[in-house]
Structures are given as C-alpha cells and as structure tokens.
Amino acid sequence: MPKVLTTRIPWLVPALAGALLAPARAQPVLTPETLFEQVSPSVWVVRTQDSAGKPLALGSAVVIGPGRLITNCHVLARAKTVSVARENVSYGATLEFPDAERDLCQLKVANFSAPPVTIAPPDSWRVGARVYAIGNPRGLETTISDGLLSGIRRSEQNSFEALQITVPISSGSSGGGLFDARGRLIGITTFMLRDAQNLNFALPANWIAEVPERAQAALAKRQAQASTAAAPGAAAAAAPTGDRVFEYRLRDRRTGVAQAIVYRLDRVDGDRLVFNQGNRVERTGGAVLENKQPSAGDFDAAMPPGGWVSAPPEPGARWSLRYTNRQLDRTLQLELTARTGETSSFQVAGRELQIVRVGFDGYVQRSATSMPTSGTFKANAWYAPEIGRVVRFDVRSRGGNGLAQFDIDEVVELVDIRSE
C-alpha cells in the first residue's frame, strides 16, 4: 500500500468544518435530474491492482476537497496501486489517511480539480426522507438510485453507527455517495445484507472530518507498540523464546473428523515471521500477510485481509467488514459485523493465557462453481495478546438452496506450542 502521510493538511479542517458543511439557510429540494447533474461530477470510480498489475477490486469514491476523495477501506484491501476514473479520465491515487476501524479511507490525487460535495449536518437527517445513491454498481459508472432513509442506527452510547436505507446497493457501490433531496452528502454507501430485502447501509458523512485525526492516532499507537516491541526484553515478551511450532487441530463438529494444522516458524525477518518454508507469513502480533497453502477450513478460506484479529481489540469495539477471498477454485464474498466480547483464560502446553473473544456475524456468498450460493456466517475468534495469535476459532455457516447447499460447523484450536 502507498505510504501513509503523518503530517496535518492545513486546508483540511477549515474545509471540512466550513466549506463542506451545508450553510444554515434552507436549500431548495432538487429534482432527481438536477441533483444528478449537480453532484455526479463528484463521484468517481476506484480501481485497484495487485503488484503484478492485475485488477483486484472496483468501488466508488466521493470528492471531499481539493485533490481529496473518500472511499471504503475494504475497497483498497491488498492493493498495490489505486486509481480514480470517470468517463475517459483516470488519475493515480495514494492512500493518505486510513480509518480502518470505521472503514473510511481518504485518497490523495495530484492535479485533480473535481468539485467537492457539500456535507449535510446530522441534525438535518430525517428517517423517512428520500435519499439518492450515486456510485458505480457492478462497474456501471455514475449510476443513480433512490429510496428512503429507513433508520439511523446508534450504539449503546448513542453515537452514530450507520444509516439504514432502502436504496439498492450492489458490488462497486462501496465508497459511493448518499445524498439528501437537496444534493448534500449524508453518507458513504458501504454494504448490504444479502437475503434481506432493502436492508442496506451507509456510513455517516459527519465521520469524514474525523478521518485524518483518527488515522494519525491509530498510526501513533502502532508506532508506540512497535517501539515497545523493539525495546530490550520486549521481544521475549511478545514471542517467548522457544515458541517455534504452533500446532492446531481442525475439527468438523458434524462428523467429528479432525486433522492437525502445524505452523512451523522458519525465520524472523524484522517483524515478519516466516512459517512453513515461506508458505505463511505473519507479523508480530498475528497479522497474516501471506497464506499460500490454506488448509484450516473457513479459518483460512474466510479470513479477512490481515487476519481475524491482529492486535488486542478495544473493549466494546464494533466494526464492519466487507471483502472477497479468491482461493484456487472458489471465491467467498463476506459482509460481517465484528464485536469485541468477553475475556477469559485458555490452557495450552502447560500455560494459562488470557484471551479476548471477537464475534463475527453476517452473510457469505460462496462460489465454488458457476452457481453462487448465499447464506449466514457466524464465527468467534479468541485472541491471546501474550503470544499474538488466535488460539481458537469456531464457525457456523449455512445456506444455499436446492442441490447447491452448504452447512459448515468447524472449530480450530491451538493444542500445542513447542520449540521443535
């Protein structure tokens, strides 16, 4: 991924606090035709490529300031290069500020003069109001669709979590704009729940102004953790001497059939841990960078980019995930909500580890043949900060129809840690 800048952009705060925010005076309601003509130049296609130049993902982005656009972070997953395009014009883009927890990423584009949108204040949102989404569903550039703002979802602390809408959302719409009838941005379209008619969601637009500060805070936290890990004696605490072989057991809870999954640490390159002759590469803390030989069922096949849990999660944290995994002859598309759960203890190899549970709940589409099937996905990952690894993972996923059905009930558990 492009290097993330850590300096503040002087224009950003006044732009988002002033120029982008809607003025207090009333604005006229626009016809759909006028609204589209007015705001569609601010919505662009996002294309990503891997290191070999092969296409990875297609999404949307909204112009929020001079040379700046906002999109969903999951659109950029595993990307080496990013571009934004509209009609016959294309620009290279770089990631400037990632707020992965909220799935909002800010892009920077040089010599880019598309007009920024106006952001509506949250107190203007009304459940039942007509709203319009402009994006690039299935690659169909600058498509407009309409519906209702059907709900404003809040957390237990009464903070915004998502805008629920009846506007149709499809693949490629991620990162697009959700506008009110006055042409003001109220959200960034992000995901839909499969098998749930007209149940679609957008991220609140007022989060956009917080992206730079939250991204810099997250970066500072990672740098502090890295400094701590690099301090004398810290490496031994993060990866105790002698921990070289991590043996897991994958068990099908329907049949009782089990198999061993062994990760053998070959070498350590800085903060990169190389397992199984380079077929699996992790970072200190458990982030999975490469996995060339997936063998642990849905623990591998459905794993989000970077792993299920790669750092101790904040208590009570909640975040959304939407991503696609392609492995050999099958493709999985997942839309999940993750929540940090309770802490407990775990016994392995004579040790007692403190662990924290993260639950994942949502939907999956599995395409092992030409007939994709959709269904539910529920999983739990128990993470042990002391060794920086998921030590237990269970999944229950079922769906499909007719002859194309799936029913997965698996558990993967760490059963041994040894030096050789």
Report what the structure shows.
Residues 1-26 form the signal peptide. InterPro entries: Chloro_Bact_Ser_Proteases, Peptidase_S1_PA, Peptidase_S1_PA_chymotrypsin, Peptidase_S1C. It comes from Hydrogenophaga crocea. Keywords: Hydrolase, Protease, Signal. The chain has 420 residues and is mostly beta strands. It folds into two domains: 12-212, Thrombin, subunit H (Beta Barrel); 232-418, YmcC-like fold, CATH 2.40.360. The protein has helices at residues 12-19, 32-39, 211-230, 234-238, 298-301, and strands spanning 43-49, 55-65, 68-71, 81-86, 89-99, 104-108, 130-135, 143-154, 160-165, 177-180, 185-192, 200-204, 245-252, 258-269, 272-275, 280-283, 288-291, 318-327, 330-348, 351-367, 373-384, 389-401, 404-418. It has an eleven-stranded antiparallel beta sheet. A six-stranded antiparallel β-barrel has the order 1-2-3-6-5-4. It has a six-stranded antiparallel beta barrel with strand order 7-8-9-12-11-10. The longest helix has 20 residues, at 211-230.
